[in-house]
Amino acid sequence: MVTNDTTHPQIAATRIVRYADLRPCLNAFIDTRTPGSDKKENFTIIGPGVSENPAQHVHISEPHGFNIGGARQPPGCTNSQHSHETAEVFFVHSGRWRFDLGEHGEDASVEMGPGDLISIPTGVFRGFTNIGADTGFLWAVLGGDDPGRVLWAPKVFEMAKEYGLVLLDDGSLVDLAAGETIPLGKAPMPPTSRGQVAGLSRFTPAELEACVARAGASGPKGAMGDLPGVTDTALIGSGRMNWHHGFTVSKLNLEKGAVIPAHDFDGADVWFVQSGNVDVSLAGETVTASPGDTITFPANSRRALRNPGATLAELVCVRTDNNAAH
After folding, report:
1. What's this model's pTM, rounded to 2 decimal places?
2. Per-residue confidence band for 4, with pLDDT thresholds at 50, 70 and 90
3. Helix (H, G, I), strand (E, B) or coil at 129
4. What's the CA dihedral at 139, 73, 160, 149 to 10 degrees?
5. Spatial distance between the Cα atoms of 166 and 70, rounded to a whole number of angstroms
6. Is 291 helix (H, G, I), strand (E, B) or coil?
7. How far, in Å, CA of 143 to CA of 86, rounded?
8. Greatest CA separation found in the chain?
9. What is the CATH number of the domain that holds 316?
10. How far apart are alpha carbons 164 and 151 in whole angstroms?
11. Is 45 inside a domain boundary?
12. What pLDDT, on the 0 to 100 scale, is given for residue 156?
């Protein structure tokens, strides 16, 4: 029987982040006032993330070996060109999106929709825009417990200065327009140099498309792929996207009534519900997770999942490397 969240807080309060309960940061980054980028919502779901605003709410701080975040943007809203020190993966939950690579976003572009996944390697400028007619949400994975800082394209610093935002050398933001001042002993971060830009990779359109797994794409069978009514497709960690990430990503489809029986993993794993509903059982409790919800299981915990609905349940699962099932 499915128990309700109030009675059983272990799962509902500490192991599931509901989409409806996500707490956004509206000024997480240096481009937060730049026209075209000023309406985005950033979320830190698991881990510290890369927000430049110390007020960013972290839903679950427990280290997992990777970070989970999210971005929600209205039509036409852009996340400015930047680079990361660790792998960055986006899964499209809703909306139509365009990802643009290069300092000015002119090297390569790809358009994506619900169920599509993209893995952008380290050391390359990337940005993304909601090109659809409705608000869209991206679910994101960043490698490592500490994913490092964002390296912004030079023009982002120039635009931020016009709107009173200064990024300090410790990675935090100062809002001059709101009356804040640069603290003693702190200094502004130097804008990204031409040498730093030259040191980043550049991608062709074909190379970028090789970083994308489309909804319904085939791939190697994952750990749960032999269960009745379960399709488990490995997207990252084997097959097409086998470069080092520090984590694996699989897409699982559960048909009506399909069950993933009680099992555990050596490390923590995180599940995202793309569509349908899934009953999640842990430590004698069962709750239902819905589209947009994020579920995290601790290492070596016995858990089970079941599709209680009449329609297909689509899930994404992220695990650390060498995370074996038992």
Report:
1. 0.93
2. very low
3. strand
4. 0
5. 24
6. coil
7. 5
8. 63
9. 2.60.120.10
10. 19
11. yes
12. 96
